[in-house]
Amino acid sequence: MRSVFRDGEGHLRNGWKALGFLVPTFFLVGLLLWGWTLLPAAVKPFVPHPFLAFLGVMIGTLGALRLERQPLASLGISVGRGPARHLGAGVLGGMVLVGLVAVCGWAAGGYHLERAGSPQVTAVVKAAWLMLGVGLFEEALFHGYFFQRIIRGLGTFWAQVIVSLVFCLAHPFNTQMEVPTRIVAMLTTFLAGWMLGLCYLRTRHLALPVGVHMGWNWFLSVMGFGVSGNESHGWWTPVFHGRPEWLSGGAYGLEASVFSVGVLALAVVGLTRWKGSAARDGHLQREDPSLASNA
To answer: What pTM did the predictor assign?
Structure first.
């Protein structure tokens, strides 16, 4: 059994490390979300679910790193001017990407936007806070310890494939959606996972993918579109013109629009060609095929 669980140097294989991280982390996240139900009603609005889920992931991450005697910064989780710049650039980039999708759908006659009856600044600010929590939780879970240990074990390409598939399958796809719409939504989500993985790989920090994730989701909600099938209320409301759902995205949101596939594919190509700050710092040299023996 030594060859199954241990490498030639007697170290636990990275695949088992990744799985060993997920099991207790899911338990911790579930426990914290259950604990939320016990909070006073007046407190619950100030503690969104994503932040509790993020806390659970961070506890699981710190536990896994402690066993390896590695610092949190080794995963690209830290604060400072550099991460702050990446976070801001990511938010802007995510907004630009989803804005391009919205413009394409509008130009194709899929919908038009009307100002909401009583737009509230507080609702938009709350949405930004919520989407920050979503970005922190999902990026720490999908592109933190789990992703990076799969990279050590199988290499970057297969880590991207595996994590992008898991990222896709972790999102809800209503069975009542038309089949073409569901296929487009799944392909969009897979490409989004690949793009966010590249954001980490090009910077070796989670700030950029967190920012892109937040900016995309937040601007979707500001425009009034659904966010991965979840209803939102922003400054505008989309009025659909009866075109196919796979073009406009329908109730699921722009992530089910074929234009999202095109925009995200272009983003993936651009990030693939961009060497990023990781190349300047020499971190890309860590992608060593010999590490595959640790899978």
So the answer is: 0.92
